[in-house]
Each structure stands twice: as structure tokens, then as C-alpha cells.
Amino acid sequence: MAMSMKKIGAIAVGGAMVASALATGAFAAEKVGDVDAFAADVVADGNANVDIVVGSNAAALDVVSAANIAAKIGSLMFKEGTVEDGAATVTVSAEAESDNFDVMKDNTVSTAIDDDGEDILFIAAADSDYADGFIVGTAASVASGTSLVAATNESLGSLGTLAKITDIDPSDWNDTDADAAEVVFVKMENNAEEYQISKKSMVYASIAYVDDEEVFNSTNAALLKEGFRIPFLGEEYAVVKIDADDDYIAVGKEAFDGVIKEGESYDLGNGYTVSVDSVLKSGDDYKISVKILKDGKQVAEKFDEAPLKLIYNGIGVVVNSAWENVGSDYGYAEILITTDTTKLELGEEFVPDWEVAGVVLNGDDMDFADKLTDVTKKEVAGVALKYVGDAEEDLDAGDEVDIADYVKFVLDDEDDSEKLKAFFKMDESKEVSLALGQTVNVLNAEIKLSEIDAEAKEAVVMTAPIAVLDSEASLDAADKGLILVGGPVVNALTAELADAGLVAIDNESPATLAVAAGAANGNDVLVVAGGDRAATEEAAEALIDML
User: Fold this and answer.
1) Which end of the chain lies in a sparser environment, N or C, as judged by fewer CB atoms within 10 Å?
2) CA gap 129, 138 in Å, rounded
3) Same domain, residue pair 111 and 209
4) Residues 425, 408: contact at Cβ < 8 Å?
């Protein structure tokens, strides 16, 4: 009785449940040809290297035998190797408090906050030197337009979980060892004997300084260029573009920083690649063609001289320079590629009530600019978020004011009505993804994924062999080895081999495993058969025992 393919497939799945039990004993079968070599090659590189064919007129026992063989081969289909790359998601948590200042007792200057109408600008930073730098005599005025400026600047020292980067030019594109640090500013006023924080009186900033300098002024401010790294809300980003036409500063997470040869590409995953198509010399200059592809199809392209900038769907590309080899046979591009690339739109809210601004050097002062010009874009020394929400009024002990959903400004009387201490605090967690060997800076901590020491499984698509009917298979069209279950009476392909004198199985044959070398379009064929159903089953069990 003929069985449909659908039925055979179902039996093959069920057979997997009994394969282990059937393969535990020692079964005997007569071997003809190099059966051991055939059995050793049924799986190659983790995938089945054979097809299994059962006769259209096969008895149910032959079908079960074919299913058992398929199940055994399926159990061998796995890949094993040494982990050379990988990634992990790490949660970094940190908390800290700055120094505090008692606004009712500590202030001894003439413009005290408890004198009606006066104010104090409180400052904390990733390193206390940066906060202190705003109260020394040579310090810049903290903004005049659209910003703070207070009667008194008061340093609250270090808030240790704010981030700092000690080399913002790691590729030495601009030959500088400048630093960058996060700084927070809050101007608190005394209005009719009530403390308040007005609109535009709180700022979070990421500011770049000349190496080993902490006082922000025209001498010490480091001006940003594409490729520089800056901290932003606790994580390290690379500057991709400073755009004066559309007023934005684009930043992204480094994915690659190095040299790519002309004609080669970098695989970002998720189907995206960045390709350096050509490097063409024109006089003393070079023009570079860079393309971003998705699943092999071009989605963005730029052809220009360095520094070249290209942004598409969260991918940022900066080409700093290009050159040719000595023989002018091919070129190279020095390139930075980023993911999670974001355009920080100046004058637009990044988080509710907090607008993006450029930290711009204005003479010796620091402004927070809503717009850029071709001149001021060359004076950008950082990125800021400034508060544009409603005033925080009637502030008193126990109040906490959020700064960009990142830092808190706190007032606390410590159960003493004669005190009112102001300070900054953080209790923050960040999730960061790292590739093996990658180092990132987050919440002022340097995190490196040195190794992955764990049992890990990767989903690999593998198709286990399922028996097909002899009417749906052919010796002439085979593209891999064949296992034929059943003798010439029940399996048409076995009959073909018998007629050609390549196998000899009749009603008297014992359990037999016979190899016909190259008989299936150049591929070997293993016949699993015997003189009756029981002998065929025994031959199948012997093969399973060998695998």
C-alpha cells in the first residue's frame, strides 16, 4: 500500500522518539563496499549530506526503519567551535552625592542667597577641578544669552557618577589629548523670601577642555571636531557632524574606527554594510565614494573630499582622510562608523522641558546657543541641555528637582530648621551592549568585555533528512548521497542498482549494508536491505548503531 509524503514525514518525526532505544544494542549486518566511510560522511559541516529513499510499496516496518535512520542523522546535526566573537548587554548602576552647601549659614558673600533678590549658581562636575574652575578669577562667565549667570558661583565639587573622557581624540585625527566632562548647573534664586529655580536656570552640559586644563575660557576650551568623543548623559558618543545649516550636532556610538581599503566594506549586522567604493586622487586631494547598503541594496551614498560625513537611519560615517598605496593601485580611507546616531537638534526638546544647545565659546565666556553660524560652529566646545519648563517655585527642604532625567538637585534640612543644604545626587542605571574586546565609558566607569565564559547556544537553521518516496527521487538527478531502505522488490531505486549489477540482494539475503560507489549522479549510494522485512529492519538498526 503506497503512502503519501505527508504521512512519511509524520512517521519520521515520531521515529525520533524511538531511535535512541533502537540504537542501543549491537546489531549485525553484512557490509559490502566501504560502508564505514559512507557512514562517517552522512553529516558534513553540521548539515545532512544524504537523502533517504523508501519504496512506494514498502511495508510499514521499512518506513519506520527509514524514520529511525533520519532521526539518528538529525541528532548528529550540530556545530561546535571556539567562540571568537560575541556580545553582551551589561547593566551599570552607580550612585553618588556632591558636596553640599547650606544656603542659610554657609554663604558669607555680600550677595547671599538669603538676601532678597539674589541668587547662587551651584555647579558640580565629573571632577571637582572642573566645578572649581567656574569660580576662579580667570573663569568664563557661564553664559549671558539664553542662560544662567548668577551673582555668585558656588562649586559643589565632584559628582562621581558624572562621566569624563580623558582622550576625546583616540584616533589622533587632530593630534590632541583633550578631555571632556559632564557638568551640571543650577541657579537658585530668593524671590520674596521664597526659593525658586526659573526657566533657563538649569543646564546639563558636556564640555571639552584642553588636556589637563579645568578652567573654561578662550585658552582652555577644546573646540569639537568630527570624530571627537564626548560623554552624553552618562555614555560615550562620537561626534559625527556639526551642521550650521540645519542647526544640529550629530553623535553616535562607535562601531568601527580604523582604515578600510578601497572596494572593501564593514558589516554592521542586521543586513547593513558600509562600503568604501572608490578613492580617487585629484591633484593633491582625494575624493571618496562611501555607500551604505541594506541587504546588498544601496540606501545612501556620498562622494566628496575628506572630511566626508554621511548619516542614514542611525548609521553615521565620517571619513577623515584618504590616500593611495605607493603604486597608486588602490586607495584607503580612514573612517569612523557609528550606530545609534542621533541628530541633537539645537533649540528642540531632547527630553520633555529640556532643549538642546551648543556650548559655544564667546570670547572668554560660555554661551548656550540655539543656532549656529559658519563662524560659531567652529567655536562649539560641547553639547548642553537647558531647562525650558515652568519655574520650580516655593522650594524647601525635601524637594528634589530633576535635571534632564539624569541628575537631581536636592534640598535637605537634616531635621534642623536652621539648615537648608543644597547638593546634587545621582542614582542611575545604564544598559550598554559591548562586543567582545570592546571598551566603553559609562557613568564615569570604564567597562571592557574581556571574555565570554558561559555555555551559549546559537540558533542554526538545519533541515534533518525526511524519507522521500522512490517515485520522487532519481539516481540521475541526485545532488548528494542516497540511503535506500528496502530491497529491489519494494524500492525502485534499489531495483535499478540490482539490474545494473551494482548490488546483489534477493529473498535469501541477510541484513545487508551495501555501498554502490558513484551510482547516484556521482554520489555514493548505501542500500539498507535484507531478504525480508525483519532483515531490512536489522540492517537499519546496524546502520544506526554505526552512526
Assistant:
1) N
2) 14
3) yes
4) yes
Q: Which amino acid does the sequence have at 116?
A: D
Alpha helix (H) ranges present in 361-515? 492-499
Per-residue cell: 376? 560659531
Please report where in the chains the cell 516496518 appears, as a residue.
61
Over pLDDT 70: what percentage of the chain? Answer: 80
Overall residue count recorded for the chain in this entry = 547
d(CA 147, CA 130): 19
Please report whether residue 262 resides in a domain. Answer: yes
370 and 411, same domain (yes or no): yes
- At 106, the amino acid letter reads D
pTM above 0.90, yes or no: no
Which cell numbers in the block locate residue 499? 539490474
Domain that holds residue 16: 5-79+460-546
Kindly state whether residues 139 and 274 are assigned to the same domain. no
Asked if residue 473 is part of any domain, the answer here is: yes
Report CA dihedral (68, 72, 75, 76) to the nearest 10 degrees: -160
At residue 480, what is the residue type? K
- Band (pLDDT 50/70/90 cuts) for residue 281 is confident
Is 454 part of a structural domain of the chain? no
pLDDT in tens, 201-242: 899 999 999 998 888 888 888 999 999 999 999 889 999 999
Report the alpha-carbon angle 133-155-113, nearest 5.
130
Least confident of 2-16, 68-82, 461-475: 2-16
- Given 334, 355, 373, the domain boundary residue is 334
- Of 334, 359, 378, which residue is a domain's last? 334
Q: How high is the pLDDT of residue 437?
A: 60
Give Cβ neighbours of residue 276 (< 8 Å, ≥ 6 apart). 260, 261, 262, 263, 264, 265, 288, 289, 290, 319, 333, 335
Strands 119-125 and 152-158: parallel
Closest by CA to 196, choosing from 343, 396, 450, is: 396
Same structural domain, 9 and 113: no
**The predicted structure's pLDDT at residue 411:** 93
Nearest-angstrom CA–CA distance, 254 and 235: 11
Longest dimension (CA), the chain: 117
Total tally of structural domains belonging to the chain: 3
Q: What is the CATH number of the domain that holds 329?
A: 2.60.98.40
464 has pLDDT over 80: no
Burial of 80 per CB tally in 10 Å (0-12, 13-18, 19+) = exposed
**Gyration radius of the chain's alpha carbons:** 36
207 and 143 fall within a common domain: yes
- Domain assignment present for residue 84? The answer is no
pLDDT of residue 364: 78
